[in-house]
Amino acid sequence: MPMRSITTALLTLLLTVGLQAKADITLDALEAGSGVSWPQGLRDAVSPLLGDLNSQAPHRAVAVSVDDALEAFALGSAAQAPSPIMASQAAMQGCEQDRAAKGLPTPCEILVSDDAIMPLGRAQRAAAGPDQGSQVWRVEGPKGTLYLVGSVHVLKPSLFPLPPVYEQAYAAAEQLAGEANPVLMNDPARVSALQSLPRPPESALRAEMPEELKDQLEAFLASLGAPPELAYASPPMAAAMELESLTIMALGYTPQAGFESYFARRASQDGKPFTELEDPIAVLRSIMTLPLPVQFDALAQTFEDLPKAPEIMQELLTLWYAGDAEGLFDATMDNMGTLEDAALLKETLFDKRNVTMTKALLPLLESGKTTFAMVGAGHLGGREGMLSELRRAGFSPVQLSNGGEPLEAVVTFP
Question: Are 326 and 381 in contact (CB under 8 A)?
């Protein structure tokens, strides 16, 4: 869960960080990477853009909207932008203007971000067959039913509608639960609490930050004409989380289109109460107060992983659509495993929180109601994951298919 608006200047800094365009993009590669067959008109419209995009310095982006019949399309592009996210924003703006002029109902989405070619949402949705496993587990309690749902915090509008099981589970629920209620994140009291989170002293950051990382941050600030002192104004974990978030946003995925945001808005409109399974401020405090060497390593690793962001995002989405909770957990741990303090990060980001959130689910299973509970899909798998925690508590989670059918026998309480 990204920490928002640490400082305006640091956010501006992070906007300039991202993927570097290195290779020429071909029309065939674009069509293959999109995952769908293109109408000839779209090929004809994109082809003239490639020369400019390939000859210009980074950053570049292409956004498209293609109707369901693959006959009509809208297009936007940008090159020589100051950052990947600014290129994506410009391309999306151009696409949305073209889409509005043509009256297309399908949302625009990023097809190219620097070197990355992103599959279109319709291609990802089509890969999720009704008989495949979903990220929904039904848990029967003594006096209540729980749909435990592994979520993706950032999605894009073209990935909707989701497979039927998610709407079925939501419709069956009288109440919702989740790590945090996205609707409340702009509440003045919560914003104030976020702004009051502790920050390391500037003197400690200056004295302890590795010289290479210090030079990297200061160099980015200098490129903006900003004072180098801003490199020492916020916790390094805050910078790492913002950097990761902004890099994913450049690929077209946003928290506003994420799983929790979508269903939390629905719940607010439908009058369904939402229970937070943990204190989001306490969670962020535990992350932002990790030992500084751990935070420095995490920030350095985030910079190092930037070129792999498209690959990592696609792997996670593929596993999510396949209902592979264990594979998602393993992939998450693999991404973290190169860090020297991976065990401490795992304990802070996952293990302790899994225990806390599972305990918060137990009263809901005694409530006499049906609950739709959303947690990041990485929290479900593994020996310390929430599915294992529920099994140790005597419950029998049953995975449902994308079509809503149980993949094994449902255990009920007498």
Answer: yes
